[in-house]
């Protein structure tokens, strides 16, 4: 990031910093007990000066966290633990992750769900089509008639760069984390938890694809990446026989989940009454995508139970691959997260 960019970003945040200062002074006047109880009322520093208050409200801050591996600042939406708890909960987006916002505040109000909790909510922004992994080569992102390259080192960022920032500024213990994701994010959640068992105590996949190297899946992933941004699957892990493809398949990457609390869910893809409000194309595609997720999730569960993993599975009778079932899962697992992480 250039000096000019840093100064420009810092200038935009002067108002937010001033607001944070006024809030802190107000709390001090009210009493030290209130100031201590509320861990959420002040903006933390970030790569461009200070975090911003996010329009999602519920004390969510938008923080630009510098990633040396990606050579840019990565926006992360963070809701601090209400009473200074040291547990963290990562929520990952799906294939069409937005570069400016997260679906967890656009389509599901995760900050509201965890409004009164003592866990820090961590919602990375961006990473469309990335599977939150480290790519071998830059991702070529196509948008209309233009295209640009971007470095994808999401695993490094989430496991090695972001935890230090969260510990320093939000008090999150690098070894006390839960992680969940939908669709692509569900695949990544189980992978990251298995590959970094010291970081995550709990992992949840909602409509994830949990056997990415089974026959036909690489072709389907290739088509999905093209459709979601013109990505080239070969830029991710190289050739179709690259060992890294198998190392990042949740079906072949389970041992690191031993002793963890693991939760998986998927639906049949059958339409619910609520799904009937969606466009016909979304319903048809949503049925196919969810049915595929269900097949791979069932296969993953059978193998996981066979090797003795602690797995809870929830197979819903209906619901397409859409935010209706993911929002439901988020609320359904809320008490599970808070209980397992001792973050009430």
TrEMBL record:
The keyword Translocase does not apply. It holds the Pfam family Esterase. The gene is fbpC1. One of its GO terms (molecular function) is trehalose O-mycolyltransferase activity. It comes from Corynebacterium kalinowskii. Residues 1-37 form the signal peptide. The keyword Transferase applies. This is Diacylglycerol acyltransferase/mycolyltransferase Ag85C. Its EC number is 2.3.1.122. It is an enzyme of class 2 (transferase). Keywords: Acyltransferase, Signal, Transferase. InterPro entries: AB_hydrolase_fold, Esterase-like, Mycobacterial_A85_antigen.
